[in-house]
Each structure stands twice: as C-alpha cells, then as structure tokens.
Amino acid sequence: MKEIISIRDAIATDLDAVVTLGLVASQSRKPGFWSNVFDHYVLRDKIDRFFLVAESGNSIVGFIIGEVRAWEFGSPPCGWVFALAVLPEKRQLGIGQQMFEEIAQRLKQAGVTTVRTMVDRDDKLTLSFFRGLGLCTGKYLELEKQID
C-alpha cells in the first residue's frame, strides 16, 4: 500500500522535528539557526516566503524552504529554494519531488517564472535530485573567496 504524504505549511510546533531532520542535511545540530529560520519563515508574515513540511501520519518526514528574491545583482525576481531534507528511510518515495512541485507552484503564484537553488558540486545525491527535476546550470555563476 502506498504511503500517504501530505505537504503543508510549517507551524511553530514543527520546530523540534525540523531540527532533528536538519541533522540529515548538515550533520550538525543547529537549534539557534532553526529558531531564526522559523521566526523569519513561519512566525512572521509569510508573503513570498515558504516553509513547507511533508507529513506521513503524525510525523514530519521532510521539509523544503524557499522564497522570492530580486536583489542579486539586478536579476529579475525569481524563486530560490535554499533548504531541502527528507528522512533517508523515506527517500525514493517521491517526497522531495512532491515538496519541490508544491513550492514551485506557490512561487509561480507569487509571480515568478524561474526557480533557482545552489548545490555543492561534490554533493552528487542533491545534484542528481535537482537535475532529475529539470533544473540545470543557470546564467549566473557563484563566485567565492576564502577569507580566513
């Protein structure tokens, strides 16, 4: 029997589950970071900001966060997805795809026609996931410099 997954807006009581799930993506517990993210994306006015969770039964099994941005060096408004995680044992069920499709739809309703994200070139799993959804190299290049 196929597992029923629902995608919904995150609420304040999801914080602990997201902190735990965030360990999947970063390998380090960052409750202060997540508290700030929740303040900005869940507790405040959420125009053009989206924090969605995937739920199976009464458990959070994934999340995705994004927003509309228009400030990067004159680029037109676009959607940015900057965080995504799915419990490893729940991968391959289409949960990440469902969350991405939902956030993309909400970004489209907010008036944008492009969605961007940034992936570490060595993170083959995440890179493969986004490429499988049709994302490809965009016209902007990320540049960086170590500033010890």
Task: Please tag this protein with its features.
alpha+beta; globular; Aminopeptidase; 4 helices; 5 strands
Radius of gyration: 15 Å
Overall CATH architecture: 3-Layer(aba) Sandwich
Which bin fits the share of residues in helices?
A: 25-40%
Strand content: 15-25%
Strand order of the largest sheet: 1-2-3-4-5
How many individual β-strands? 5
Low-confidence spans: none
Distance between the termini: 53 Å
Sequence of secondary-structure elements: EHHEEEHEH
CATH superfamily: Gcn5-related N-acetyltransferase (GNAT)
The CATH topology label is Aminopeptidase
Q: What can you see in these coordinates?
A:
The chain is an alpha+beta fold and 148 residues long. It has a single domain (6-132), classed as Aminopeptidase, CATH 3.40.630. 33% of the residues lie in helices and 23% in strands. It contains four helices and five strands. The protein has helices at 15-26, 31-43, 95-109, 124-132; strands at 6-9, 49-56, 59-69, 78-86, 115-116. The protein has a five-stranded mixed sheet, sandwiched between helices. Strand 2 (49-56) and strand 3 (59-69) form a beta hairpin. Helix 1 packs across helix 2 (31-43). The longest helix has 15 residues, at 95-109. The chain is globular. The termini are far apart. The mean pLDDT is 89.
Secondary-structure blueprint of this entry?
Elements: E1 6-9, H1 15-26, H2 31-43, E2 49-56, E3 59-69, E4 78-86, H3 95-109, E5 115-116, H4 124-132
Parallel strand pairs: 4-5
Antiparallel strand pairs: 1-2, 2-3, 3-4
Helix pairs in contact: 1-2
